[in-house]
């Protein structure tokens, strides 16, 4: 925490206790405000304690009852967004009993989240671009466990394909990372570099999933009803 973010102890503890339940609502309001600022600006550099307090309509001192600094707030924002992503991928995984189809459904859900939530997605994976974050080696205690659980959804789907005899993967955990990198490229690179005449994105998605997860049979064709 910088000197500008520190407050005297009597300032941080002098307010009366919130009525029962009000504290948790204020915490959620702070996260809401940080998310709103991020979506407006597209940059975590715009997240300051004063700006967040102004968005909520509270004194900066009130934030310290729930968060130590902006890093903790960013962690809370990304944890909430990761929970949303986890829920979406879980729903996709349960949408079909076909192992290859399950991989495609999970991958489409991930791609849709990244395309529909560009600001929060960028912060979710790029938050270490903050110089101070990197210097502190902040561990994001709320977010990191959720990222692991989210990746496990894809790992389990690849394992199901191996067990069904339709994937030659010998390390589903590793191949999950390969798939993750490929999907991240589909979200970011195809958007950032408009000068390239990119192939159809559904075809790219189809090929990324098949190659990253070493499927021996193709997943559903990109032009099928479930591939649109």
Structural summary, described in words:
With 228 residues, the protein is an all-alpha fold. It folds into two domains: 68 residues, no CATH class; 157 residues, Tetracycline Repressor, domain 2 (Orthogonal Bundle), CATH 1.10.357. The protein is 65% helix and 0% strand. It contains eleven helices and no strands. Helix 5 runs antiparallel to helix 6 and helix 9 crosses helix 10.
Q: What are the salient characteristics of this protein?
A:
Tetracycline Repressor, domain 2; 11 helices; disordered N terminus; mainly alpha; 228 residues; elongated
Q: Outline of this structure?
A:
The chain has 228 residues and is mainly α. The protein has helices at 9-13, 22-41, 49-56, 60-63, 70-93, 99-116, 118-126, 131-136, 143-163, 172-192, 201-212.
The Rg value, from CA coordinates, equals 21 Å
Which segments are poorly predicted (pLDDT under 50) over 5 or more consecutive residues?
1-21
What is the H level of CATH, i.e. the homologous superfamily of the largest domain?
Tetracycline Repressor, domain 2
| Shape by Cα distribution | elongated
CATH level-two architecture of the largest domain: Orthogonal Bundle
- How many domains make up the coordinates? 2
Helix content: 55-70%
Topology, number of strands: 0
Q: SSE order, as H and E?
A: HHHHHHHHHHH
Q: What is the CATH level 1 assignment of the largest domain?
A: Mainly Alpha
* Amino-to-carboxy terminus distance: 47 Å
Number of helices: 11
Kindly report the average pLDDT value. 82
Percent of residues in beta strands?
under 5%
SS class: mainly alpha
How many strands, what sense, and barrel or not for the largest sheet? Answer: none
What is the CATH third-level topology name of the largest domain?
A: Tetracycline Repressor, domain 2
